[in-house]
Specification:
This protein is an alpha/beta fold and about 240 residues long. It is about 40% helix and about 10% strand. It has helices at about 10-15, 40-55, 65-75, 95-115, 115-120, 125-135, 145-155, 160-170, 225-240, and strands at about 60-65, 80-85, 185-190, 210-215.
Length: about 240
């Protein structure tokens, strides 16, 4: 939520050295239309599963961040994942943590919508990219132009943002995690200020899951720790 597939722009070519890669925009973000139904994790997961069906794919290796990490686990619950690497997945925040996360996401939406006409120009400099991705990245000056522009198609221009924030993030309570049978790696940046300690809480709920902390990385660590993330995907996929 709040980003497009361009948030993984620097990871995709690294992953493509080892895998065939499909990158998706969640409904209402980037080039994907809104869902006709309430955007819960259940309906978002069904939409991604339908996209896999449209590509003639059954079970795939899945990498996701934040709400994308939560959806990666949902695909595993549905039996559609061969392996999962979930970065800072949402879903297990305590009420005060959910309120804090909701406040941060609301501010990000309002601020980026207000500065939307400036985002293209801001993405041209390291200072501007730092301003666009600070809070999500621990090392925001490393963010590429494509990654920083993803906040425009996400936070600034996404349709149905508030409904998705409430239904898929703040009101979501994960169930059925004990039915996951594929290898699962849960990872979180140690400097994540958005999701605090949510990720490690998944470990006892998912059979065989392991937790890996990412040093000097934030909530969306794609440009903070790209080499480490690709290594996690390769190692987890190798267990499948």
């Amino acid at each position: 939520i709040g980003a497009t597939r361009d948030d993984f722009a620097e990871l995709v070519p690294r992953l493509a050295e080892h895998f065939d890669v499909l990158a998706v925009d969640l409904p209402g973000h980037g080039s994907s239309p809104m869902l006709p139904t309430r955007p819960t994790v259940e309906s978002l997961g069904a939409a991604v599963a339908a996209d896999l069906d449209a590509h003639g794919l059954d079970r795939v290796h899945v990498l996701g961040n934040s709400l994308g990490g939560r959806l990666a686990l949902d695909l595993a619950r549905r039996g559609r994942a061969r392996s999962v690497v979930a970065l800072s997945p949402s879903g297990l925040g305590l009420p005060p943590e959910r309120a804090f996360q909701g406040l941060l996401m609301a501010v990000a939406r309002i601020v980026n919508k207000a500065r939307s006409p400036l985002i293209e120009r801001m993405s041209d400099s390291a200072v501007g990219r730092t301003a666009l991705t600070a809070g999500l990245r621990a090392l925001p000056w490393r963010t590429s132009k494509a990654e920083s522009l993803s906040v425009n198609g996400g936070f600034a221009e996404s349709e149905g943002y508030w409904s998705m924030l409430w239904n898929a993030v703040l009101a979501d309570v994960p169930t059925g995690l004990d039915r996951i049978s594929c290898p699962v790696t849960l990872a979180q940046g140690v400097l994540d200020v958005v999701a605090s300690a949510q990720t490690v809480r998944y470990v006892p709920l998912i059979p065989g899951a392991r937790f890996v902390p990412l040093p000097w990385a934030g909530h969306a660590p794609q440009s903070d720790a790209p080499v480490a993330i690709v290594d996690l995907v390769r190692r987890t996929a190798a267990q499948a």
